[in-house]
Specification:
- This protein is 46% helix and 25% strand.
- It is of the alpha+beta class and 399 residues long.
- Strands 1, 2, 3, 4, 5, 6, 7, 8, 9, 10, 11, 12 and 13 form a 13-stranded mixed β-sheet that branches.
- 35% of the residues are buried.
- The N terminus and C terminus are likely disordered.
């Protein structure tokens, strides 16, 4: 045994030596991933719900023809897939080329789907690609993956970097020996609990309340028109941050969600009063987690808190299933209030150490600052987040 190295670390090092890395520039690799995905997902220590075959294929079909994929694949010595990290080549700064992760405009996580023994090899292989690209962007990396497989290489390397850790994921983990009712009362408090019960009675007084859950292909496809009814009347649509606000997104999700349902990787839930859909939400289903991708409600029903009632229904269901409910990295106060655990997420720009790289790093930082100012002035999601952060800070100072 080597001094200072545990048996577990030696085993990991030996496993990493047997990992073979392949860099694919062909879209056909998406089909290969689809063929081996189920087997890999059962073995993987890291499963990114946004990198499932359904997300990758649906998203890729809608990309511009001048884009080129770059997928880092890891195999064991016997040829079994151990992991993958999909990127797309995009025109970069100063006439250069950069790598952006697949689904960069929709995904809330961008870590690879892989087994632990392949994770470090995937990161090292990605870093070596800076010989061909000016920069590589990897946003929304969970702290556990960052600390285990990325931070050391970033600190030891001689690349230019920009790192940020300005967000966290809020999580609800079922606690052994605690019922959901006990958890809910603890998080609510007496006053909020009383107000919530009032909202439930007020909602019931306006008609027959029903809850719908759809996980099958046919049911999800049939339910998609109801999502439009809620989205059009939601505050998110009015602020231009709805799920279908951007042109082409409705067609994308109308195709994606049924395909995810076919594979058992999505759950759509609705709160209805009579025949009218009042609120809806989307959960992406992983092996042990449910990821709350989207929730919206009809603004006309705001006084009876339909979003909160649907969310409570979702929490209770996940608790009964033993699933962790991941609110994803969006810093809203209600998510932090309900969560019993949080995990920081990290963003990294890896930049080639050249004159163009130094100029690119300065431009990227300037762009970040400019976007931050624009978000502060925006009436949409970023402004809502900023207002909540200001309110939270004010409350802490008052206390």
């Amino acid at each position: 045994m080597l001094p200072g190295i545990s048996a577990l670390k030696v085993a990991v090092l030996m496993a990493e030596k047997s990992v073979k890395i392949e860099i694919s520039r062909s879209p056909d690799s998406l089909g290969l991933i689809a063929q081996e995905y189920e087997s890999l997902a059962r073995r993987a220590d890291w499963v990114n719900p946004y990198f499932s075959p359904e997300w990758l294929c649906s998203w890729w079909k809608r990309q511009k023809q001048d884009r080129a994929p770059l997928i880092v694949l890891a195999y064991c010595g016997e040829g079994q897939l151990l992991g993958y990290w999909p990127f797309v080549e995009r025109p970069g700064l100063l006439g250069s080329r950069g790598l952006w992760p697949f689904v960069y405009d929709e995904a809330n996580y961008h870590f690879p789907t892989c087994c632990s023994e392949a994770a470090t090899s995937l990161v090292e292989s990605l870093e070596k690609l800076l010989g061909s690209f000016l920069f590589i962007w990897t946003p929304q990396i969970p702290d556990s993956f960052w600390q285990s497989h990325m931070l050391g290489l970033v600190q030891r390397g001689n690349r230019l970097t920009i790192t940020r850790s300005h967000r966290s994921s809020s999580l609800i983990e079922p606690v052994e020996g605690q019922s959901f009712g006990q958890f809910w009362e603890e998080k609510q408090g007496p006053k909020s609990h009383k107000s919530f019960r009032y909202d439930q009675r007020a909602l019931s007084s306006r008609g027959e309340v029903s809850w719908e859950t759809h996980t099958r292909f046919e049911d999800v496809r049939s339910a998609m028109p109801s999502t439009c009814v809620v989205e059009i009347a939601s505050a998110k649509a009015l602020e231009n941050i709805g799920l279908y606000t951007i042109r082409g997104k409705r067609g994308f999700f109308f195709e994606l969600f049924p395909e995810l349902a076919r594979a058992g990787r999505v759950r759509l839930s609705f709160l209805r009063v009579g025949d009218h859909p009042v609120a809806w939400q989307v959960e992406l289903l992983g092996p042990t987690r449910a990821y709350l991708h989207h929730i919206a409600y009809d603004e006309g029903w705001k006084k009876v808190s339909p979003g909160k009632q649907l969310l409570q229904h979702c929490m209770k269901r996940c608790w009964a299933e033993g699933r962790v409910l991941d609110f994803l990295p969006a810093p809203f106060i209600y998510k932090e209030r309900y969560a019993n655990r949080s995990e920081p997420v990290h963003e990294l720009h890896w930049i080639k150490k050249t004159i163009r790289g130094r100029i690119a790093r300065r431009l990227i930082r300037w762009n970040m600052q400019w976007r931050q100012k624009m978000r502060q002035r925006s009436p949409g999601l970023a402004a809502a987040v900023a207002r909540e952060q200001v309110s939270k800070t004010a409350c802490r100072n008052f206390q």
